[in-house]
Specification:
The structure is a single chain. The protein is an alpha+beta fold. Helices cover 42% and strands 22% of the residues. The protein has helices at residues 3-22, 26-44, 52-66, 98-101, 106-109, 135-145, 173-177, 189-200, 203-220, 226-239, 265-271; strands at 72-74, 79-85, 126-130, 153-161, 165-169, 247-251, 259-263, 272-287, 290-300. It has a 9-stranded mixed beta sheet with strand order 1-5-6-7-3-2-4-8-9. Helix 1 packs parallel to helix 8, helix 3 crosses helix 9 and helix 3 crosses helix 10. 37% of the residues are buried. The model has no long low-confidence stretch (mean pLDDT 89).
């Protein structure tokens, strides 16, 4: 049995077990899940307060009981791009050092690491944009993620994975509920898993599962706010909990259907090679993550 078939076999077993255990309470579970998600959305919108313990309990419950989590293998050679705007006063030919373009080290800057979409305050994680079509595609996504504007000078760091990595996508089944599939992973395994859920789950249990993935997918791609980050950083801990997982994927906030990636620093150190640093001047920002940018200069990264 190859790895993909083994993954599918494990997922089918999980679905069959959940169906046997939970179909009998399907209506109750749907009502309960719906109430939890509505309150989480009210918390995100600032309408109610929830304590840390309640957030952790509810998110763990949704993640463990109603989602099927699979490790997505990504082959080595994956290009990942990060970007930062050069703040004034700026030298158009300035190239940042690698340490200023990669993740922030908790050893010497923990107090300065702000809470992010997938990290708590003081925790370090490597965020990047995946080049699905070509490097220009990935650079445009990176520009959009930092909200680059016309006349900005931007530095980018291009990196490549040197080994296969394993990641998880938060809310991936929502693609299939909507009759779509992710742009970054075309294997049919997730569609087959979704069809297995439709076959085995009673209607109310299926809706409960779909609600969870819809909420996870939605919250991961919402505009940033303190309360959004309170939820998403906790979700990240759930999905990144296994030692063998390198990171997570999530849809870009600015460029729909384009994947962002967040990697553990340990995986960056062992499975990622920094390739080159470039400087661009943003000439046109057309919206929808479509830019025209003039390349200014670049340099290869050696011995980092």
């Amino acid at each position: 049995m190859d790895k993909v078939e083994e993954m599918k076999h494990e997922a089918f077993d999980c679905i069959d077990r959940k169906a046997e255990e939970e179909n009998g309470d399907a209506s109750f579970r749907l009502i309960h899940v719906s109430k939890i998600i509505k309150q989480l959305n009210q918390f995100i919108d600032g309408k109610i307060r929830l304590c840390d313990a309640q957030l952790d309990e509810w998110l763990a419950y949704l993640g463990a009981e109603f989602t099927v989590t699979l490790d997505i293998p990504l082959d080595k050679g994956l290009n990942i791009i990060r970007a930062r705007i050069l703040e004034p006063p700026r030298n158009p030919h300035h190239l940042m050092e690698v340490k200023d373009l990669t993740y922030r080290s908790i050893d010497d800057k923990a107090s300065e690491i702000a809470k992010g979409r997938l990290n708590s305050k003081g925790e370090s994680i490597f965020y990047g944009c995946i080049s699905v079509v070509n490097n220009e595609d990935g650079i445009n996504i990176a520009f959009s993620e930092i909200k680059a504007q016309e006349h900005d000078f931007v530095n980018t760091l291009l990196s490549t994975t040197t080994q296969d990595i394993k990641v998880r996508f938060i809310g991936i089944m929502d693609y299939y509920r909507r009759g779509e599939r992710p742009a970054f992973y075309h294997h049919e395994i997730f569609r087959e898993i979704y069809e297995r859920q439709r076959e085995k789950f009673y209607p109310d249990l299926l809706v409960a599962s779909e609600l969870c993935d819809a909420f996870f997918f939605d919250v991961m791609s919402r505009e940033e706010s303190d309360n959004v980050y309170e939820v998403t950083s906790r979700l990240a801990k759930i999905f990144l909990g296994d030692e063998h997982i390198d990171g997570v994927l999530y849809e870009s906030v600015q460029a729909k259907s384009s994947p962002n990636i967040a990697l553990k620093p340990r995986s960056v150190g062992g499975k990622l090679e920094y390739k080159e640093i470039s400087c661009f001047k943003i000439k046109n920002d057309y919206g929808y993550a479509i830019y025209r940018a003039d390349p200014i200069c670049k340099v290869k990264v050696v011995g980092y």
